[in-house]
Amino acid sequence: DAGVIQSPRHEVTEMGQEVTLRCKPISGHNSLFWYRQTMMRGLELLIYFNNNVPIDDSGMPEDRFSAKMPNASFSTLKIQPSEPRDSAVYFCASTPTGRITDTQYFGPGTRLTVL
Amino acid sequence: AQKITQTQPGMFVQEKEAVTLDCTYDTSDPSYGLFWYKQPSSGEMIFLIYQGSYDQQNATEGRYSLNFQKARKSANLVISASQLGDSAMYFCAITTSGTYKYIFGTGTRLKVLA
Known about the structure:
The complex is a heterodimer.
Chain A: E1 5-7, E2 10-13, E3 19-24, E4 31-38, E5 42-50, E6 53-56, E7 65-71, E8 74-79, E9 88-95, E10 105-106, E11 110-114
Parallel strand pairs in A: 2-11
Antiparallel strand pairs in A: 1-3, 3-8, 4-5, 4-9, 5-6, 7-8, 9-10, 9-11
Chain B: E1 3-5, E2 10-14, E3 19-21, E4 24-26, E5 32-39, E6 46-52, E7 60-61, E8 64-69, E9 74-79, E10 88-96, E11 102-104, E12 108-113
Parallel strand pairs in B: 2-12
Antiparallel strand pairs in B: 1-4, 3-9, 5-6, 5-10, 7-8, 8-9, 10-11, 10-12
C-alpha cells in the first residue's frame, strides 16, 4: 500500500514567490493534517481536515497561508507571498477515521527553503 | 487545552542497554490517546506505540513499551536492548476526544553509543 505522498520533496524559492505543496493521503483515510517543523518551534499543527472539510485552522500562521482539500485524495498548502521565515519542513499526515485511537501516518515531508 | 512536556532535550545510552524517555501530559478530557513517534535523521516520522486513556495495561510493541502512570499524567517510553539504529528524535503526542488534534512535545534526541 502506498503511504502518504507529498510533492515536491524539496523546494527552493525566492522571497515573494508563490509556493504550493501537495499531499495525497492514504486511500480511505478521512482526516488530513498539515504540520510545519522548525528547530525553533518544533512540530506545529497548521490545519486539519475531516471528510475534506477544514475543521481547525487556528494554527495557520497568517493570511499568506491557505489550504484546500478539493477531494478525498488531494490537498494543497499554498504560501503567497513566501518569506524566508517560512523555511521549514512541511509534513502532511492522514488518519483513517479521525478517532483518538487512530495512528497518524506521515508523509516524507517537503523541505522548503525561501531565499 | 492539552499539552505535552518532554523535559529531556538529549539522552545518551549504551548499546544493548535500556533507556527511558520521559513524557508528561496535561488534559482535562478523560478520553485521550498517547502516541510516540521516532524521527531518524532522514526526517520521516515513524509511529512506535499507542496508549489509550482507558487501557488497563501498558502498551508494548517489540522492544518498545510505554510506562503509563495515569495519576501522574506520565507516559514514558522504554526502549529495551538499545541498538545503534535507535539513534533519533523521539516525540510524544496526545489527542483528545474534544478536539481530535494531535499535540506534539518538543522531542528528545537519543544517541546510542557503541
